[in-house]
Amino acid sequence: MQTESMKILIIGSGGREHALAWKIRQSPLVKQVFCAPGNGGIGQDVISVALATHDEIVAFCKKEAIDLVVVGPEIPLVEGLADILAEKNIPVFGPSAKAAQLEGSKGFTKDICRKYNIPTAGYKRFIDADPVATGIKRSFETKYGPSANALAYVKEKGAPIVIKADGLAAGKGVTVAMTEKEASDAVNEIMGGRYGNAGASVVIEDFLEGEEVSFFALTDGREAIEFGSAQDHKRAYDGDKGPNTGGMGTYSPAPIMSDALRRQVMDEIIHPTVRAMAKEGMPYKGVLFAGLMITKSGPKLIEYNVRFGDPETQSLMMRLDSDIVPALLACVHGDLDKVEIRFKSQAALCVVMAAKGYPGDYKKGSVIKGLDAAAGFANVKVFHAGTQLKDGNMTAIGGRALGVTVLADTIQAAQQLAYNAVDAIDWPEGFCRRDIGSKAIREMETL
Ligand code: AMP
Ligand code: GLY
Fold first, then answer.
1. How far does the centroid of ligand 1 lie from the alpha carbon of residue 174, in Å?
2. Could you tell me the fold of the domain covering 211-446?
3. How far, in Å, from the CA of 388 to the mean position of ligand 1?
4. Domain extents for the chain?
5. For residue 280, which of 155, 337, 385, 401 sits 20 to 30 Å off, Cα-Cα?
6. Which residues of the chain have pLDDT under 50?
7. Measured from the CA of 206, which atom of ligand 1 is nearest?
């Protein structure tokens, strides 16, 4: 690939996409980067374009002679955007719709794990209606039972127990039930149609205890290489209190991921999954984001995501030393064995700033000031998510608006620097957690 020759299109509008855009833009191979639809801040780094449908994306790629499309979110992947682009010979980073079932159907993933001996929580799948009528294929050896059996199963297993809607439910389809009543309420809610088709079938899993880690690997369908680890903070408020969110902050690497543990995850979880998907005739290409629970009896898979994490990517991109573009291309072209990835040994940390009220109702349109002051700190990058430039003002239009992301020698220093930058931002209608990274700092002290 010639220097400064490539044109890349990124699909999505979040902090994850801004972080990818920022990193891709730094590649010496790249001439131009577009992001569709982008957000209020991505324009500092790349060109935003409005593309409303898959057809418009294809037409844009043809018109601009796009060399690579990088799909940020899971929904277009589950809907088959990668298949549509591949059919038109447009190189795309991201799995096919079939392979994207690893995120699109929790039951599918559990069945793969069972069939190929990949460590995960014990489970059973249940379905209310006729699987054929609901469009859900019976896969592998699973035997479904109706919802009455789901309730009986909850009774038999007792709490704590975990109830999951099978399909994509915008991060809301999971109930970690501490009582039997919570569990049966969750079964009734899911099967009662709360999540539409996503709840047409239910997975009931054993409760896992341990520490959660986000682990990333790139794969070309055959080879897989590690692509860093991070830890997210899913609850809205300090001390892991309050409602679940899309993620309020991250740090990378996850201190718990020793070399031995990383190898174990690759050997027992990632490689077997990549081999399994190839064997099932749906080779997985792209980034495999494993949500892991590090339990007393080793790492177990909680779930797969078929895309980069948000806000994990903000921290990962800050640490990534290598050019990302050859790695993305290798996943598409199947020569990942020739790629080497280097991360800086420093710590990255991302503090998400969200509109007050998030993840519930929040006011839209408040003005965010002080962004230049925050950007003035060395080793700080403010990634945008739910923002829009309006009459020269940066306004907040989404719940999570900013990801203040930093790089420093230690997690302590990163935390200090991140909050110094956060304090330079003047946004009275926003809030953030003040304890991103604190758990890691406590753990490092006891290691
Ligand atoms: P998910 O939507 O699959 O990411 O699940 C949301 C959260 O539920 C996870 O991040 C975990 O904290 C928790 N969770 C999911 N499955 C289990 C499990 N089997 N045991 C304990 N916690 C779980
Ligand atoms: N941060 C969790 C996710 O991207 O799903």
1. 7
2. D-amino Acid Aminotransferase; Chain A, domain 1 (3.30.470)
3. 32
4. 6-93, 122-206, 211-446
5. 337
6. 129-143
7. 19
